[in-house]
Write a structure and sequence with these properties.
By secondary structure, the protein is of the alpha+beta class. It has helices spanning about 5-15, 30-35, 45-50, 60-65, 90-95, 100-110, 115-120, 125-140, 150-160, 165-175, 185-200, 220, 230-245, 250-260, 265-270, 290-295, 330, 370-390, and strands at about 5, 40, 70-75, 80-85, 205, 215, 275-280, 285-290, 305, 340-345, 345-355, 360-365, 395-400. The protein is about 40% helix and about 15% strand. A five-stranded mixed sheet has the order 9-10-11-12-13, with helices on one face. Strands 1-7-8 form a three-stranded mixed sheet. A three-stranded antiparallel sheet has the order 2-4-3.
């Protein structure tokens, strides 16, 4: 018989797993990042997400973890989005994300298929062609020594691959493709292939330089390869972490979070199936058996947090669990999404920052209304965001609809 749990228990369990019940200290930063990784899109959102989870976090501390002690790594990961995760856990968020079949990989890099079909080329073949060139192009950080942005990298690799192709295929490769005006079709294909190579542990992101997100060779950046962990073990561990953060859940929700089709989830789900317990929540869901006690007696969520767009907590796919349907359109937008306001375990509004010079204006809009105590806590949270955005002063405005 399935275990039955309430919505309140599920929310409290997930908030605890996401470190949104109580902030961790500085020494707990890697644990906060490593639960399910932290998406950094839009750029800078990871810093705000981690601020909501770790006490005393600064931009300098995060940069040090990435650029100096290199305890954090950033690459494309789930859904092809850029994520931070602990370097020690890199296999989970690279090999553990990479779909093992051609069909699933095509769904993961959705959009590559039509171009590959025109070329009469499999994704695996295109990835191998890209892999054969990327080491030489990026060796020593590329021509500039500081890594190459994806557009620079893609253009150079595409030119090199074109020289190796037979005449008919080369003509298609060099013709304008569907991805950007003036961009050769082959260059667009290379962009997709580089995303696959990040999951092979070949390349990663160095810290941004202005508007540039430079890609570098992992071996050169770290001084050693990513730890060698079998993909089967990495996929199983990724699913365990997913269920710890988003359980109880389903194959379909996991597939959407990962970026594959529901029918592709077998290589992740099947090896762990004996470790799962059925839960009656929103139909039939599953939790890792080791998490049952925590699900049954989660900590009570208190306090206020300002979560950025793309925060790990709002990446769950059963959105009705955390936001009433009437407010979902205000939270999840295809472009220009706001941050979300979390008070005592509930998402109760949205917020937007606007910076002018060294001044940051934070506008908070409730779904209903906030008591004075919540407003005071939210104003404090907004003040703490100022330094993270390079602001010397913060103006907080509560906007009532």
């Amino acid at each position: 018989m399935a275990v039955t749990v309430s919505r309140a228990d599920v929310i409290a369990f997930r908030l605890g797993a996401h470190h949104l019940t109580e902030r961790v200290g500085e020494s707990g930063l890697l644990d906060a990042v490593g639960r399910c990784g932290v998406q950094n899109s839009p750029p800078g959102s990871a810093l705000l997400a981690l601020h909501a989870r770790a006490r005393g976090l600064t931009a300098e501390r995060l940069e040090c973890a990435v650029a100096e002690d290199k305890s954090l790594l950033q690459t494309w990961s789930m859904r092809g989005s850029p994520f931070y995760f602990p370097t020690a856990d890199a296999p989970v968020f690279t090999a553990g994300v990479l779909p093992p079949t051609e069909s699933a990989a095509r769904r993961f890099v959705l959009g590559a298929g039509p171009a590959l079909d025109r070329l009469g080329m499999s994704l695996a073949e295109a990835v191998e062609l890209t892999a054969a060139e990327i080491g030489d192009v990026l060796a020593g950080g590329g021509p500039t020594g500081g890594g190459l942005a994806i557009n620079e990298l893609g253009a150079e690799i595409a030119r090199r691959i074109a020289r190796t192709l037979p005449t008919g295929r080369r003509g298609i490769w060099e013709a304008e493709g569907p991805y950007a005006p003036g961009q050769p079709l082959g260059e667009g294909v290379v962009h997709f292939c580089v995303r696959v190579l990040t999951l092979r542990g070949a390349v990663c992101f160095a810290p941004r330089a202005g508007n540039k997100a430079p890609l570098v060779l992992v071996d050169e950046w770290l001084g050693h390869p990513i730890p060698d962990v079998g993909p089967e073990s990495a996929r199983a561990e990724l699913l365990r972490r997913y269920l710890r953060c988003y359980g109880p859940s389903t194959r379909a929700a996991f597939a959407a979070w990962l970026g594959v089709g529901t029918g592709d989830t077998g290589p992740w789900w099947d090896p762990v199936e004996d470790e799962l317990t059925e839960v009656g929540f929103g139909g039939t869901s599953w939790i890792h058996t080791e998490d049952l006690d925590a699900l049954g007696s989660p900590p009570s969520p208190k306090g206020a947090r300002l979560l950025p767009p793309g925060d790990p907590y709002t990446q769950m796919r059963d959105r009705d669990t955390i936001v009433d349907r009437e407010y979902r359109g205000q939270v999840w937008k295809s472009a220009g999404a706001p941050g979300t306001v979390l008070t005592d375990g509930e998402i109760t509004g949205v917020w937007r920052p606007r910076k002018s010079g060294r001044k940051l204006k934070v506008t908070l809009t409730p779904f209903g209304s906030w008591p004075a105590q919540d407003k005071d806590s939210l104003a404090d949270e907004a003040e703490r965001i100022g330094p993270l955005r390079g602001a010397s002063s913060v103006d907080v405005e509560f906007h009532i609809r």
